[in-house]
Each structure stands twice: as structure tokens, then as C-alpha cells.
From TrEMBL, chain A:
This is Thiamine transport system permease protein ThiP. GO terms for cellular component: plasma membrane. One of its GO terms (molecular function) is transmembrane transporter activity. Residues 67-273, 347-541 form the ABC transmembrane type-1 domain. It is a multi-pass membrane protein. GO terms for biological process: thiamine transport. The chain crosses the membrane at residues 24-49, 69-92, 104-126, 146-167, 211-232, 252-272, 310-334, 346-370, 391-410, 422-444, 478-500, 520-544. PROSITE patterns: ABC_TM1. The lineage of its organism: Bacteria, Pseudomonadati, Pseudomonadota, Gammaproteobacteria, Oceanospirillales. Belongs to the binding-protein-dependent transport system permease family. The complex is composed of two ATP-binding proteins (ThiQ), two transmembrane proteins (ThiP) and a solute-binding protein (ThiB). Keywords: Cell inner membrane, Cell membrane, Membrane, Repeat, Transmembrane, Transmembrane helix, Transport. It comes from Onishia taeanensis.
TrEMBL record, chain B:
This is Thiamine-binding periplasmic protein. One of its GO terms (biological process) is thiamine transport. Its main location: periplasm. Belongs to the bacterial solute-binding protein 1 family. It is found in: Periplasm. GO terms for cellular component: outer membrane-bounded periplasmic space. Pfam families: SBP_bac_1. InterPro entries: SBP, ThiB, ThiB-like. It comes from Onishia taeanensis.
Length: 572, 337
């Protein structure tokens, strides 16, 4: 849809009036597809349900408890993730170069997309009762390490997933501050507190509402982590109740009600978040001069050297050991890999599906953002917010409801074969959309007004506008967005399990098959292959777009500097 | 940038479509089952080969879902339009619900070959394997496991077990029924005592066994009495054994059934007859790590002789259907504190 807008730019200039509406139509088309399928599947459940009475939610005291616990654990997890992410991000921003910074940033990207089964294995190996950290815990507290089970374990796992995400986004926002500000801060010799007040807090404040909404939603809808580490039915989230209603009890009405409750709570939160604060973006769209080594920050000396080191070491200790545990366990089973005939076809199948889902998510995300930009430029703030918010819809709609609803919509029958794969690709693309949009929006919407006006004056339109104005600032975000979308789809099990497969598993399905048949070693090796593929995808896509495009006209000036998009600080 | 992956995906989709269209030429039986059944090393591939050799011009296609509950739900959603000819993997606790859908046809197989610990005369559901729920323990961490439920409940609190949630897992539901059968009206009190020993309640068996038990998080996990057979036969270790409980163990029987709407009813009945033949059953013991439904004689792997042989029992499928929600609520009330 977005590419339509681009190719259509070849049309003669007198068509421009019509052309300028294309972002809107593209956005509307994406919006219709998303909201149509999302609400359509929910509607299909409601229609099938015999009699829906909202009082069902209150009649069952157990559900009120479930709701309370869901809210409580999600709030705690969000608070902990954000509270810790702020100092970590500040420390990372203050220390633009140290050994291992790149590795740490890579690990931060990885942690978001690891399948929960693998993350759980790593967390248990490190923090469990027999984990690597258990002797230390016992030496310090004198009690056996049981902190992984119960609320503390849930929060720990959610912090493992979400702190890196939050810190990564905060860091980008901090680094987006104009270079002149940092120069001034250096020249004035601002103290740590003054820098916080003038530069850091405004950037953090801009980001916090959306970040909080995103993390809260992710924690609120968490399933495997809460169930495995929760300790018992007292730790039940709405998703578990929904699973029970839909699968075991065949109570479509209750399932739809629970989904509606979840939708209302999370969308309410998103509306609140979107109405205040700016937007985070995973890649700095606005060009800033590299901070690295340019301006001596007074606050980089003294006590902060110690505190920053502590924060960074703590981050590394949180992130790396579980990943190392997965790798160590996987290496133990590597010898079995050669004998596994189904591994490579499964990997290929997963990669093709991930590419489809990634591409689709990218197209949808660009279309929604283009439509949002078009609306916002014309002062339609509410409509613009709605269009952007629709991208988050799938995040709050349980995959199980979406899957079952789609199934009902597509009846009479869904062949076990390729339609199943197609649906999985579609749903995976929807699920990746919130992340894709976070990454792209800074670059797409952050096009400085002056540049846009200049391009308008020079009548740079259509393909040329895309080629010279948009693409240079989009290529890296596009690569990162694609990496996120593809890896999220690569690790997905929840959706593919819904539709079934004709004995041709994807990589995560293969992993579950191996577990279901007691093949622990082989499963660990498969998990390692999955992890390595995810890391390789990130690196490959970053590498492909690392080089600046070749601009024949530029001799003395790099066009990057002219368009001020180049962000060389970004590690490849 | 985006066009290429999409084109590749479309190519794949088209290829798969063509493949499935071609597959329709010979008579094809579509069997819905669960994913570990069709794994490369599971019973599926061997069974497919044996059946296709037996019938000559037919094909057997497995469609893998994630578990028995998903089979039932898929059947509900698809109704008479289902693409399936047969279902493989509904256990006893799902039978009554599946029967009520009125979509299944009698199997007409000769039941005299069955070798189950209970009598079986169901006209629709044909058992293909069975097992007992049991706590598997790590003999290195727990040299003296409890010999009964009573001993487990009375053990010191630091004896931890990992169980599964009856709302999301077959084994979890199995434990719920096991406790109910043993303790009856006293079940809530027994659950309160058991909960002191529960390290955590996972959503599924895989997390419990793989992420936790094999990581040494607790010395006991809820599983099957046949689990040690795999460890002994394939991994050559005696370390993991099942604890035999004096009160007896709850049975799980997995069944096959054919749909009324099958396009090849005769072939589907052939398959059901084949289910109780050695050609099918010999893939069960180590492929599915369960007991075969017939007497395999010499062909049964020797490790199966070293498994515990406790008393076993079940509720009837109708009792489970009638009381499941009530019993789950009872468990919730005893556990959700």
C-alpha cells in the first residue's frame, strides 16, 4: 500500500492533487484490514455465543480476583522495568564508548524476541532453586533461593523482557537531543543535576507514557511466564481464564467477554498514553551530530563513574547469563543436530513465513503511519491518533481469540494445508505491527519541516522524493523493523499452534515436538539454532543497510550530512 | 525491499496449494492428531508407512494440532464440514463432550484384541494406547520417594513437586481427577496439604518437565508412569523413576474415532481395524512413550517390564463431563490463596 504511493509517483505532475491523498487511502486500507479482522473475529465469537451477559464477569468472584492480580502484576512489572530502565539508559547515554557496549545493545534487542519457553529455560538455569545464582543468594541471605517462584519471579521475568526494550528506546530518545544542547551543557559545565533537569528529564518524560502503556500491555497479556513462575492459581491472568473458557469449557460468550475486558483496559491505557507525551522511536530519525567524544560532559567524571559502572554491570548480569545458559545447553545437543532431518526444512519454512510476515508488517506499518502523518498535517488529531492506535489493537487482542474468530469467519472449512500457513503469516504480521510502528514512526514522521518545504519548493515529488528525501532516513529503521517483525514471527508458537500443520513443522513447532517426546538435548540444540538465527537476522539486516547509499552528486558533502539523517553512532 | 519476501511467500503458498491438490488423486485419509505424534521420531511416520503399504493405493495425511483439547475444539468449530476422516488423540476425559457433538461414527472394530487394565466396550471410541499418571522423581535428589499420597501430603514442606494446571493441561486435569478419586469429598483438604509442596503450577507438561524438572528445580514432577521407559531405553539412565502410590493411579486412555462425514468410511474403518494390529501398536511404546493397547508379546520393549504396575482406576467420561467445572472450582478455592 505504501509502495503503491511510491510507484504511483511516476504519474505526471498534474495528478498530484490526487496523489497527495494516497497516504490517506493507504492508511485507511490498512486500518480497515486490521480493525476489520480484529473486531470481526471478536464479533464472530460473540455471534456464535449463545447468550452473552456482561454480568458473567461479576457473577464469578474468581474472575474478579484474576482481574485484580493481572492488574497488580502488570503494574509492578511496569514500574520495576521503567524504574530500572531510566538509570540504565542514562548511564548508557553518558558512556558512549566502552568495551562491550555494542554487545550489550545487541543483547537488549534480542531479549524482546526470544520465545518465552527459551527465556524461561535460561531464567530457571540462572535464577532457579538450583540455578547459577542460587549459591550466591544462599550466602547472602542464608535462605535457599526460591525467589523465582511467585510474584517476585513473574516481575523478574518481565523485567528481563522489558527493561532492555525500555532502556533501548530511552537511550535513543536521549541521543536525539540536538547536538547544540550538549555543546552548551559542556561549555557551561553543567552539573549532573542540571543536565538531568534541562536535557535528560524532558526526553525521558516525553517517552514515559507510551513506554508504560506498551510494557503494561505486554505484561498484562503475559501467559507462559505467569503460569510457569506464578506458583499456583492465585497467579492467574485474564489470558489463562480466557484459554480455559475457550478451549476446555467451550464457553465462547465468556471468552469474548474476557477479551472485551482486556481490550477495554488496555486500549483505555493506550488512549491515555497517546494523548500525552511524544513518541519513542527505536532509531533516531532526526539527525544529530554524534555525541561520542565531542563534548566533555562534566557529569561523566567523579562518582558517576562508579554508579554508571554498577548499572551497566547489573544490566549485563540480568541479560547475559540466561542467554549463555541457553547457548551452553544447546551446545550439549549439537551433535544430535546432524541426525535431525526435519531441522533444516523447518528452519527454511520458518524463515519464509517470517519474511512474509515481516514484509506484510512493514507495508501495513508504513501505510498506517503515512495515513497518520497525512491526517496530522491537516489538523485531524483525533483521527490521526485512531489510525496510529489501531496498530496496537492486535497487541491487546488475545491471539487465541483472533485465531478462533478468524476460524469462525473463514468457515465452512479451513484446509489443513497452506491456508493455515497463510493465516499464521497474517496474524504474525499483525502481532509485529506495534513494534514495527515504534521503530518506523520517528523516521517517517520526524522529517523536518524545513526539508519538506524545500522539497516542495523544488517540486521534488514521487519517486525522487522517496529516493532522496525518505529512503536515506528510512533504510535503517526499515531494516530494524523488518528484523523485529521477522524474529517475532520466527519465534512464534502461539499462533501456529492454533491452525495446525500437515506434519511439516516450523522451527518452534519442532521444538515443542521434541519436548513432547522427551528429546531434551535435541530441543536445546534446536533452541540454540533458533536463537542464532534471530541474532543472525538482526546482524544481516543491519549490515545490509549500514553503508550509506551512493550519491553521485556529492563530492565534498556527504548527502547524509546535508539531509542531516546520518546517524553514524549507531552500531551496525 | 518488501516485494521479494512477499513474492517468495506467495510462491511457497502456491507450491503448497499445488501439492495438496495433487495429493487428492489417490484416496486420502486425513487424520487430526497432536504434534508429538507426527514428529520425525514419533509413531506417526512408521504408522503412515505401514498403513499405506497395507491399503495399496491410499494415502494417510496427518494434521497436527497442539493437543487433545485442540482436536475437540477443531471438531466443534468445523462440524460436519471437517476435513478430517479420523481423530487420533482424544482421551477419556474428552470423550463425553466429543460424543455429544454427534459427529462421530461407530468404529465396528473387534475389541477382543484389547489389553487394557479396564473393561472397554465403547462403540465409538477405540483405545490405541494408555498410561497412568504418576509423579516422576529424580532418584539422585530423592532416594526415598513417598510411597503414597498420604506420605507425600505428610512429608516435610521442603519436599517440592511441580504440577500442571487442570485448566490448561491434560496431565493437570489427570491429577485433579486422581485426587478426587482418592479423596472424594476430602479432596479440598488434601489439596491444601499438597499445595504446601507445590513449587509451581505450570501451564503445560513441557514447561514442567523440561524447563523445571530437568533443570533440577524440584525432585518430583507430575507426568506418566511410562516416562522412565524413555529415560531407560533411549538415554540409558535409571535416574528418573515413577513413584508408586499405594492408593492407586489414575488411568489415561487415548482413543481414535472416525467422523460420520468421512468421504471414505470404509477406508477409515480399515484404519481403525489397523489401529489394533501389531503394525500400528509396535510404534507406540517408545514412539509415544505409552503402553500399547494390545498384547505385543515379545515385541514390547523390555524396559516396560521394569515400570511400576500399580492399581489403576478412572471416572467414567460422563462423570468427568458432569463434574469437571465443579471440581476445578473446588481446586481453585483450595489453591488460590
Amino acid at each position: 500500500m505504501a509502495s503503491e504511493a511510491i510507484t504511483a509517483g511516476k504519474a505526471p505532475p498534474h495528478d498530484r492533487r490526487r496523489l497527495t491523498h494516497l497516504p490517506l487511502w493507504a492508511g485507511l486500507a490498512a486500518l480497515t484490514a486490521l480493525v476489520g479482522l480484529g473486531l470481526g473475529s471478536l464479533g464472530a465469537l460473540l455471534v456464535q455465543a449463545p447468550g452473552v451477559s456482561p454480568s458473567g464477569l461479576w457473577r464469578e468472584p474468581y474472575l474478579a480476583g484474576v482481574l485484580r492480580f493481572s492488574l497488580w502484576q502488570a503494574s509492578l512489572s511496569t514500574l520495576a522495568s521503567l524504574g530500572l530502565a531510566v538509570p540504565v539508559a542514562l548511564a548508557l547515554a553518558r558512556r558512549p564508548s566502552f568495551v562491550g557496549r555494542r554487545l550489550l545493545l545487541r543483547a537488549m534487542e534480542l531479549s524482546l524476541v526470544i520465545p518465552s519457553l527459551i527465556a524461561l529455560f535460561g531464567l530457571v538455569a540462572v535464577h532457579g532453586r538450583q540455578g547459577w545464582a542460587a549459591p550466591l543468594w544462599e550466602a547472602l541471605t542464608g535462605t535457599p533461593a526460591g525467589y523465582l517462584y511467585g510474584l517476585s519471579g513473574i516481575v523478574l521475568a518481565h523485567v528481563f523482557y522489558n527493561l532492555p526494550l525500555a532502556a533501548r528506546l530511552l537511550l535513543q530518545e536521549l541521543e536525539r537531543a540536538p547536538a547544540a544542547h550538549w555543546r552548551l551543557a559542556a561549555q557551561l559545565g553543567l552539573s549532573r543535576r542540571a543536565i538531568w533537569g534541562t536535557l535528560e528529564w524532558p526526553a525521558v518524560k516525553r517517552l514515559l507514557p507510551r513506554l508504560a502503556a506498551l510494557i503494561f500491555t505486554l505484561c498484562f497479556t503475559s501467559f507462559a511466564i505467569v503460569m510457569t513462575l506464578g506458583g499456583g492459581p492465585a497467579s492467574t491472568t485474564l489470558e489463562v481464564a480466557l484459554y480455559q473458557a475457550l478451549k476446555f469449557d467451550n464457553d465462547l460468550a465468556l471468552a469474548a467477554l474476557l477479551a472485551l475486558a482486556q481490550l477495554t483496559i488496555c486500549l483505555g491505557l493506550w488512549a491515555l498514553a497517546l494523548s500525552r507525551g511524544g513518541a519513542p522511536s527505536l532509531v533516531a530519525g532526526d539527525g544529530t551530530m554524534p555525541i561520542k567524544g565531542r563534548w566533555q560532559r562534566r557529569d561523566a567524571l567523579g562518582v558517576s563513574q562508579i554508579t554508571d559502572s554498577l548499572w551497566l554491570v547489573a544490566l549485563a548480569l540480568l541479560l547475559l547469563p540466561p542467554l549463555v545458559a541457553v547457548v551452553v545447553a544447546g551446545l550439549g545437543g549439537v551433535t544430535d543436530l546432524a541426525a535431525q532431518a526435519s531441522l533444516w526444512p523447518a528452519l527454511l519454512r520458518s524463515l519464509v513465513m517470517a519474511a512474509g510476515a515481516g514484509g506484510l508488517a512493514l507495508v501495513l506499518g508504513l501505510a498506517l503511519l503515512a495515513g497518520r502523518g497525512w491526517l496530522a498535517a491537516r489538523g485531524r488529531r483525533l483521527a490521526a491518533g485512531l489510525m496510529e492506535g489501531s496498530g496496537q489493537l492486535i497487541l491487546v487482542l488475545p491471539a487465541l481469540v483472533l485465531g478462533t474468530g478468524l476460524f469462525l469467519l473463514l468457515r465452512p472449512r479451513l484446509g489443513g494445508g497452506w491456508q493455515g500457513y497463510g493465516l499464521v503469516v497474517l496474524v504474525n504480521a499483525f502481532m509485529a505491527l506495534p513494534f514495527v510502528m515504534q521503530v518506523l514512526r520517528g523516521a517517517l514522521l520526524g522529517l523536518p519541516l524545513a526539508q519538506r518545504r524545500l522539497a516542495d519548493q523544488l517540486d521534488i515529488q514521487g519517486l525522487a522524493r522517496f529516493r532522496w528525501l525518505l529512503w536515506p532516513r528510512l533504510r535503517r529503521p526499515v531494516a530494524l523493523a523488518l528484523a523485529y517483525a521477522m524474529t517475532l514471527s520466527l519465534g512464534d508458537f502461539s499462533v501456529i499452534a492454533l491452525f495446525g500443520s500437515p506434519s511439516a513443522p516450523t522451527l518452534p513447532m519442532l521444538l515443542y515436538q521434541q519436548l513432547g517426546s522427551y528429546r531434551w538435548q535435541t530441543a536445546a540444540a534446536t533452541a540454540l539454532v533458533l536463537l542464532a538465527t534471530v541474532a543472525a537476522l538482526f546482524m544481516l539486516l543491519a549490515w545490509l543497510t549500514r553503508q550509506l547509499p551512493h550519491y553521485p552528486l556529492s563530492n565534498s558533502h556527504r548527502p547524509g550530512a546535508f539531509w542531516s539523517h546520518a546517524d553514524d553512532r549507531q552500531e551496525p | 525491499m518488501n516485494a521479494k519476501p512477499i513474492r517468495t511467500a506467495l510462491g511457497l503458498v502456491a507450491g503448497l496449494a499445488a501439492a495438496s491438490a495433487m495429493a487428492d488423486e489417490p484416496r486420502t485419509l486425513t487424520v487430526y492428531t497432536y504434534d508429538s505424534f507426527v514428529a520425525e521420531w514419533g509413531p506417526g511416520p512408521g504408522i503412515k508407512k505401514a498403513f499405506e503399504a497395507r491399503c495399496g493405493d491410499c494415502r494417510l495425511e496427518f494434521v497436527a494440532l497442539s493437543g487433545g483439547v485442540d482436536l475437540l475444539q477443531r471438531l466443534r468449530l468445523e462440524g460436519e464440514d471437517s476435513a478430517a476422516d479420523l481423530l487420533l488423540g482424544l482421551d477419556m476425559n474428552l470423550m463425553a463432550d466429543a460424543r455429544d457433538l454427534d459427529l462421530l461414527a461407530p468404529h465396528q472394530a473387534d475389541l477382543s484384541r484389547l489389553a487394557l487394565p479396564i473393561d472397554w466396550d465403547d462403540p465409538v471410541f477405540l483405545p490405541y494406547d494408555w498410561g497412568r499418571f504418576a509423579f516422576v522423581y529424580d532418584s539422585e535428589a530423592l532416594p526415598n520417594p513417598p510411597k503414597s499420597f498420604a506420605e507425600l501430603l505428610a512429608a516435610p514442606d521442603d519436599l517440592k513437586v511441580i504440577i500442571q494446571d487442570p485448566r490448561t493441561s491434560i496431565t493437570g486435569l489427570g491429577l485433579l481427577l486422581w485426587m478426587k478419586r482418592v479423596y472424594g469429598d476430602e479432596a479440598p483438604a488434601a489439596w491444601e496439604k499438597l499445595n504446601d509442596h507445590v513449587l509451581t503450577v505450570t501451564g503445560g507438561w513441557s514447561q514442567a518437565y523440561f524447563s523445571l524438572f530437568m533443570n533440577g528445580e524440584a525432585p518430583m514432577v507430575l507426568s506418566y508412569s511410562t516416562s522412565p521407559a524413555y529415560h531407560m531405553a533411549v538415554e540409558n539412565t535409571e535416574r528418573y523413576q515413577a513413584a508408586e502410590f499405594a492408593e492407586g493411579h489414575y488411568l489415561q486412555v487415548e482413543t481414535a474415532a472416525m467422523l460420520k462425514s468421512s468421504e471414505h468410511p470404509a477406508l477409515a474403518r480399515d484404519f481403525l481395524d489397523f489401529v489394533l494390529s501389531p503394525d500400528f501398536q509396535r510404534h507406540i511404546p517408545l514412539g509415544n512413550v505409552m503402553y500399547p493397547a494390545i498384547d505385543l508379546g515379545e515385541e514390547r520393549p523390555a524396559v516396560f517390564d521394569r515400570l511400576i504396575e500399580p492399581e489403576s482406576f478412572t471416572f467414567s467420561p460422563e462423570e468427568v463431563q458432569a463434574h469437571r467445572r465443579e471440581w476445578i472450582r473446588e481446586w481453585l478455592n483450595a489453591s488460590a490463596r
